[in-house]
Design a protein that fits this description.
- By secondary structure, the chain is mainly beta.
- It folds into 2 domains: about 30 residues, no CATH class; about 40 residues, no CATH class.
- Helices cover about 10% and strands about 25% of the residues.
- It is built from 1 helix and 5 strands.
- The strands form 2 sheets. A 3-stranded antiparallel beta sheet has the order 3-4-5. A two-stranded antiparallel sheet has the order 1-2.
Length: about 80
């Protein structure tokens, strides 16, 4: 199950970036996400879900990209 990156509640919707979010954050966007190398991350949606793409580093896992930018990753089982 997916977790909303903004409030750590269960994600039931997708926003315009195709990121799983809760109902109250459906209009919210993840902006100015940066990679460890300093480049901006582009949000992509693929066959296996959402991921980030860095110009220098290539594809980056969704959870790893959020952790690099200070969004807490909480499992739905921990709630």
């Amino acid at each position: 199950m997916d977790v909303c990156p903004f409030c750590s509640r269960q994600a039931t919707q997708k926003n315009s970036q195709q990121i799983p979010v809760c109902l109250s954050h459906k209009d919210a966007l993840l902006e100015d996400l940066k990679c460890a190398c300093g480049e901006y991350l582009d949000v992509k949606s693929g066959k296996f879900g959402v991921y980030f793409q860095c110009f220098n580093c290539g594809n980056i896992n969704y959870k790893k990209g959020l952790e690099m930018n200070g969004y807490p990753i909480v499992s739905i089982n921990d709630l």
